[in-house]
Specification:
two-stranded antiparallel sheet, eight-stranded mixed β-sheet, single chain, Alkaline Phosphatase, subunit A, alpha/beta, 12 strands
């Protein structure tokens, strides 16, 4: 049996006897006991799914974001007024909450972790389970160049998409980096008159194929923890193989696909209008990535859970406003916090407009998507885990009876997560764990 070390390589041979090698990830068996020392063709249009997260919820105040009318034909309170014109394609959820199962409310973490993984975490920095977007990526993400794409207009390396609950996907943090990822090396214009497979892509695919047997042999030599780590590593390898296969296959014509020009270079900034400017640029790029069949799954982190965004000319960030700003006795809410909440939500509205602007089939790209918008808290001032704002945008290929306001009355957020998965076609009957486990989708939303 071969002796493993951190320098171990999986080796194979290409045709003609050319040797190749592929490294392995950092495994427990490479560390000391403390883990510190390194040792338009008529085909059916697919349904796409995306998440859009923003931090610190919406304002806890009279008629700020919750419509007074339930069902169809809801009105738009001030903080979601940026949805004007899209009401018939957006469902609003209010009254949802996190059931903690005796666990602490981990500030700026419990909310989104529970929504995405189905269980409240006992501590920060990790989820109890994979985020459900990765399950959808495995189920419906095939056939596209990228299994999923992540971006963060806020400009920090924050993503809440995870397969292990411990490590998270790395997002693109600027419009330029997102453009390069999608439309740079390896991109093939589906409407181009000529097509030639990339020699570089052919070589990389051959390298991965050459070490298949050694991947299997390596798995037999390691412990349980390393097997999990290898499984995660091989998942990324499989995704690379799929990406290379897409690059080596002539893409089908796509009327909706128009290759965009490279965006302008913008400095990273936590000033909210700059975040929203970058978010709009990234929205256009992500929408076109979906239209060009580069991905079917995407995740956006507009701002992190403890948002450090600030208003132009203001010396205090959003997070501090939510805690320090006094409630105006006449208004009944915190005015600066409310302004920032509206601007954060505007990022979501602008994002879905980019999808609505692209014609696809007999409708729009948004009609063939489900984009779930959500935050981490209800009342940011108290880090409340009730009345967390959540939204569905898009018609999911006609499956989503959009345009409703659902008042959930204290039901768990996992009901929304389950409904989302069913709307995009996942054959799943229940979602969540413990008190958050549910088999009750919002059937009134499913056509």
């Amino acid at each position: 049996m071969a002796i493993l070390s951190r320098r171990s390589m999986m080796r194979g041979f290409l045709a003609g006897g050319v040797g190749v090698s592929v490294g392995v990830p950092l495994l427990d068996c490479f560390l000391n006991e403390n883990g510190t020392a390194l040792a338009a063709d008529g085909a059916k249009v697919p349904i796409r799914f995306g998440t859009y997260f923003w931090g610190l919820g919406l304002t806890h105040g009279p008629n700020r974001w919750v419509p007074t009318k339930t069902g169809m034909g809801y009105e738009l309170p001030p903080e979601i007024a940026s949805l004007k014109g899209l009401e018939k394609k957006v469902t609003v959820f209010s009254g949802l909450r996190i059931h903690l199962d005796g666990k602490p409310n981990v500030q700026h973490h419990t909310g989104h972790a529970s929504i995405l993984s189905g269980e409240a975490p006992p501590q920060g920095g990790q989820f109890q389970h994979a985020s459900f977007d990765t399950t959808l990526a495995d189920e419906i993400g095939g056939g596209a160049r990228f299994r999923s794409l992540e971006c963060a207009p806020y400009g920090s390396n924050i993503s809440y998409s995870t397969r292990t609950g411990k490590s998270f996907s790395t997002p693109e943090v600027s419009p330029i980096s997102l453009y390069t990822r999608i439309f740079g090396e390896g991109f093939q214009d589906p409407n181009a008159d000529t097509w030639t497979p990339s020699k570089d892509a052919m070589l990389r695919k051959s390298v991965l194929s050459a070490v298949t047997d050694q991947r299997q042999a390596l798995a037999a030599q390691v412990g349980a923890a390393d097997k999990l780590r290898l499984d995660q590593y091989y998942t990324s390898v499989r995704q690379m193989e799929e990406q290379l296969s897409a690059e080596l296959t002539k893409p089908a014509k796509c009327e909706s696909c128009v290759v965009p020009a490279s965006p302008e270079e913008n400095p990273r900034s936590s000033e909210i209008t700059r975040i929203n400017h970058n978010s709009k640029l990234m929205a256009d790029l992500m929408a076109m990535a979906v239209a060009c069949n580069q991905t079917k799954i995407f995740n956006v982190c507009h701002s992190n859970a403890g948002s450090g965004a600030y208003l132009p000319g203001d010396s205090k960030i959003y997070h501090l406003h939510t805690h320090d700003e006094a409630v105006d006795p006449k208004l009944g809410y915190q005015p600066n916090s409310a302004k920032l909440a509206s601007l954060h939500f505007q990022g979501y509205a602008d994002f879905i407009r980019a999808f609505e602007a692209i014609k696809e089939g007999d409708g729009t790209l948004l009609d063939n998507c489900l984009i779930m918008g959500f935050s981490d808290t209800g009342n940011a001032r108290t880090h409340a885990t009730d009345n967390i704002p959540m939204f569905f945008a898009g018609k999911a290929g006609g499956r989503h009876k959009a345009g409703q306001h659902i008042s959930a009355g204290g039901e768990p957020v996992t009901r929304v997560s389950l409904t989302a998965q069913q709307l995009v076609g996942l054959p799943i009957g229940e979602f969540g764990h413990g008190a958050m486990k549910t088999g009750k989708a919002f059937s009134e939303l499913i056509a």
